[in-house]
Amino acid sequence: MKNKKSIYTALCAALCCSGMIAHAASKPNVVLIYADDMGYGEIQRFHPEASKVPTSHLNQLCDEGMMFTDAHTSASICTPSRYALLTGRYNWRSRHQRGVAGGGKPCLIAPDRMTLASLFKEQGYQTSMFGKWHLDFQYQVPEGAEKLKTKRELWYYGAPVGTVIPDGPVSRGFDYYLGFHHSSSMSSVIENDQVIEYLSTINMMGRLTDAVVSSIDEFAKGERDQPFFIYFPINSPHKPVVPREEWKGRGGIDDPYTEFVAQTDDAVGQVLAALERNGLKENTIVLFGTDNGCHLPADTFLEFGHEVSGPLRDRKTSIYEGGHRIPFIVRWPGVVAAGSKNDELICMSDLFATFAEYFAFELADDTAEDSISFLPLLKDAEPKVKRESIVHHDFKGRFAIRDDEWKLILRTDDKVKNAAGLAAEFQLYNVKEDIAESNNLANEYPEKVDVLVALLKKQIADGRTTPGELQQNDAKIDMWKKNVSGK
User: Fold this and answer.
1) Is 316 contained in some domain?
2) What is the pLDDT of residues 164-211, one digit of tens each?
């Protein structure tokens, strides 16, 4: 097996020799950490009244940065939320209309579409990714290659060693990649564009964290005339829930899941420590978010006084707030006020426009169509344009739309009857006053329902929600999902 540290060093040298380095010492480094299935209530600073898992490092990040209390992923499930994060475009505009990607198909991000990684690359950044991709790519399996036989500690070992990945992260803006496609194929470890080994699931988080820390250490040894962008989508606390043995009993509650959350916090701590000891803290932006809500039912640990979704309704896959409202933190020394909090509405797709504005980079009409910069919010300034609305999407492809404090869900509500005694056709909540989405006001405000339905139709039809030339969606959009039932 190739040594990951030597490969990373070679990558840096290759970029230097090719002349790709921009002399941009003033540009900040950027580390984007993305947890997998971590609920709004799991970080103590976000929900101190009912968060029992120790999250000292994430608490530190909150104390040194800005907490966003109304931040959302574009969908309540892995694949679509990651698509929006990396493209600045709503997931449902792509061919992927429901569920998650299983791998083995062409990459969901079109080859000619600019990504967050390629934006940084154009600005002279060294771009690296460590972790879960989950946006499809193809497998070119060598003739005669065989999968390793099933072992208990391996989770659906995936593609054989030697398999080539022609359309993975290194073809979508990243200079270096170490990780896996999705959790069910986690044991097939990919480096750049090739499967290099099988790894036990219990060792994956440690392997990824070590690689991120090593890359920071290696960068610090160089001349530092090229900034770095690191995307670190951790595999935890998503299933398989596999905390290392040394984390047993350290989760605040005697349960493997809470231990895995605590280990996730420690991974964040190791990255923060690497930045500090290498003198990079003051010139590095650290962002932390999650791809959707917790995969466990919201009431799982209530008997212990812990609420994985905090005050929010439901969990991962759901159209309710517990599915897509996430804890989001930004630390930017000298720019973001330490210990600050922001209640403005933002979407993870907005990272694209935020950094584009910082770089004074003009986005093309077919780039980041649903991304709105929140850069002024980081500087405690009033933005010229702020996000007023956001479209939500769930596991089955059902829609909701938020406009200011109002949220309309395109689902019936059997608990609320109309004048004819039939179930309410829609669900309408004032999430500023009713964050738990417990009081359906659809029958009381029919005019608001009509306005929001019209807004959603327009945002779907326009192919974008930002100023610019109208765009085409990649597929026909079924707004109503009348044939979809269930939770």
Assistant:
1) yes
2) 999 999 999 999 999 999 999 999 999 999 999 999 999 999 999 999
How confident is the model at residue 483, as a pLDDT? 54
State how far the Cα of 303 lies from the Cα of 71, in Å rounded to an integer. Answer: 28
In a domain, 195, yes or no: yes
The beta strands (E) that lie in 57-104 are given as: 66-72
Q: CA-CA distances (angstroms) from residue 430 to 267, 342, 487?
A: 37, 19, 21
Q: What is the DSSP letter of 140?
A: B
Q: Which neighbouring-strand residues pair with 393?
A: 399
> N- to C-terminal Cα distance for the chain?
45
Containing domain of residue 169, as a range? 4-383
DSSP-based three-state secondary structure for 34: strand
Q: State residue 21's pLDDT score.
A: 35
What was the pLDDT predicted at 385?
A: 93
The DSSP call for residue 170 is: G
Give CA separation, 108 vs 133, 316, 394, in Å.
Answer: 11, 21, 18
Q: How confident is the model at residue 417 (pLDDT cuts 50, 70, 90)?
A: confident
Establish if 414 belongs to a structural domain: no
Query: Which residues, listed in sequence order, are joined to residue 35 by a DSSP beta bridge?
Result: 290
- CA 125/CA 367 separation, integer angstroms: 19
Distances (CA, A) of 63 to 41, 313, 327, 435: 17, 27, 14, 24
| pLDDT at site 14 | 39
Does residue 407 form part of some domain? Answer: no
pLDDT digits (tens, 9 = 90+) for 33-59: 999 999 999 999 999 999 999 999 999
Would you state the structure tokens that stand for residue 249, as one six-digit string?
Answer: 């009993």
Half-sphere exposure of 215 (CA within 13 A, CB side): 30
**Among 452, 472, 451, which Cα is nearest to 461's?**
472
CATH code for the domain of 314: 3.40.720.10
pTM for the full predicted model: 0.94
With 80 as the cut, is the pLDDT of residue 312 above it?
yes
Torsion region of 53: left, alpha or beta (phi above 0 gives left; psi -120 to 50 gives alpha): beta
17 pLDDT above the threshold of 70? no
Phi-psi sector, 136: left (phi>0), alpha (psi -120 to 50), beta:
left
The answer on pLDDT for 225 being more than 50 is: yes
Specify the number of domains making up the chain: 1
Residue 30, phi then psi, degrees to nearest 5: -135, 130
Q: Compute the chain's Rg from CA coordinates.
A: 22
What residue has token string 């993305």? 34
CA dist., res. 254 & res. 201, Å (int): 21
Tens-place pLDDT, residues 242-285? 999 999 999 999 999 999 999 999 999 999 999 999 999 999 99
Dist. CA 33–CA 454, nearest whole Å = 36
Q: Tokens 């956001």 belong to which residue?
A: 390
